[in-house]
Specification:
Number of domains: 2
Structural class: mainly alpha
Number of strands: 0
CATH class of the largest domain: Mainly Alpha
Length: 172
């Protein structure tokens, strides 16, 4: 049982336990190079936690935090897409997408098998990527992933299965 609403120690304990994993999760959700927006998502998540009576999150604190963080990150991504649409022209987008010559750094990194698998993971649809990351990088159960993403547990299993199968196919 977490402390009472007037006892901030339960929020501090949640912050100590979940801040870093949530930051890593948010960073991947908003785009791997925007640490400030990821921090904003995590800060918003814990601000919302402070407004919750402990009984509302008791027994499912982790999934609750990941769900709130996910929603904040999705909002950030949507906002960033709208901003980019206003700034970029169609020609710049086509030019950046048509560049297929990998840099030496990219070629060297591709030789590292972990990096290679992570790149393949990035090619998967977003829902498969998210389910796989929550399962293997954050050690979440299908039930917890289901609560965070809104997919059924069986759909979470299917997303993970399909994503891993796709990665295997890319590797062969």
């Amino acid at each position: 049982m977490v402390g009472g609403q007037d006892d901030p120690s339960w929020v501090r304990a949640a912050l100590d336990r979940y801040e870093r994993p949530l930051l890593a999760y948010a960073l991947r959700m908003v785009g791997g190079n925007d640490i400030e927006r990821a921090r904003d998502c995590v800060q918003e998540t814990f601000a919302k936690l402070c407004d919750q009576p402990p009984a509302n999150v008791n027994g499912h604190l982790g999934p609750w935090l990941y769900t709130v963080c996910r929603n904040a990150a999705l909002d950030v991504r949507r906002k960033a897409r709208r901003e980019m649409a206003l700034v970029e022209t169609a020609d710049e987008t086509i030019e950046s997408l048509s560049s297929t010559t990998p840099s030496p750094a990219v070629v060297a990194e591709a030789k590292d098998s972990t990096s290679h698998v992570l790149k393949m993971l990035a090619r998967l649809p977003g829902d498969q990527q998210e389910a796989i990351r929550l399962k293997f990088q954050h050690q979440m159960s299908y039930r917890e992933i289901s609560r965070i993403t809104g997919h059924s547990e069986s759909n979470v299993g299917f997303l993970i299965h399909r994503g891993i199968k796709s990665i295997r196919e890319m590797l062969s």
